[in-house]
Amino acid sequence: MFRQSNLRGAAIRPKDGDSVTVTGHVEIYERDGKVQLYVDTLKPAGQGGLYERLEALKRKLAAEGLFDPGRRRTLPMLPGKVAVVTSASGAALHDILNVSGMRCPSVPIVLVPSAVQGAQAAGEIARALRTAGSLKDVDVVILARGGGSMEDLWCFNEEEVVRAVAACPVPVVSGVGHEVDTPLCDFAADVRASSPSNAAEIVFPDREELRH
Q: Could you report the per-residue pLDDT of 65-84, keeping only the tens digit for each?
């Protein structure tokens, strides 16, 4: 890969053992019986295609206004009831219950269970969000999942999930992954949290502060 191609076309700095996808051309030197591959572009194998899909969908939804900051709603200071969309057996629910129990245990929580990983997860999450938004007296919906790889969190990038977040009739707090993770549902949510625990800290006020 010559220097100019490297400057223009290298998406990563490769190291021994990396799997990569390259484009370029092959030249054959008949005299010496040698074949040379000249590389024009280089990117990670596997995830490269996911990144391209992600960016294309992000541009499409942004153009429709789904990520417009003006759409974001203010959270109530003291919610009457909070719906949580997450796995019934995952660590995210445990974290949210722990934090809410310490901060403001009087606020009732209703779990709307959903798969948060796998081929069927996007459809389940979208349905769960619609259910959560229709529940009586629910003021806030928390969408949550713990950390994972890009593939693990991919369902939160799916178009039907992002649209369900944007269409929810009550404010949505997205607490998916960790600080470094920014799935597309974060951009459509009213508030982005860095983790499920942080989502609970944002939604549930501290009772001592309320007393003060």
A: 999 999 999 999 999 999 99
Cα gap 102→88, rounded to integer Å: 20
For 136, the token pair is 């009586």
Strands 34-44 and 20-29: antiparallel
pLDDT tens digits, residue range 134-167?
999 999 999 999 988 888 899 999 999 999 999 9
In what order do the strands lie in the sheet containing 82-86? 109-113, 82-86, 140-145, 172-176, 191-192
Q: Is 73 helix (H, G, I), strand (E, B) or coil?
A: coil
Under the phi-then-psi rule, with left for phi > 0, alpha for psi from -120 to 50, and beta for the rest, what region is 33? Answer: left
Provide the strand spans (E) within 165-210: 172-176, 191-192
The Cα 19–Cα 7 span in angstroms is 20
> Who contacts 13 (Cβ-Cβ below 8 Å, separation ≥6)?
none
What pTM was computed for the model? 0.78
The answer to whether the beta carbons of residues 173 and 75 sit under 8 Å apart is yes
Taking the C-alpha atoms of residue 32 and residue 35, their distance in angstroms, rounded to an integer, is: 9
Specify the DSSP element, H or E, that contains 35: strand 34-44
SS3 169: coil
Report the alpha-carbon distance of residue 45 to residue 87 in Å, rounded.
Answer: 30
In 3D space, the residue among 160, 167, 211 whose CA is nearest the CA of residue 189 turns out to be: 167
Q: How far is the C-alpha of 111 from the C-alpha of 159, rounded, in Å?
A: 23
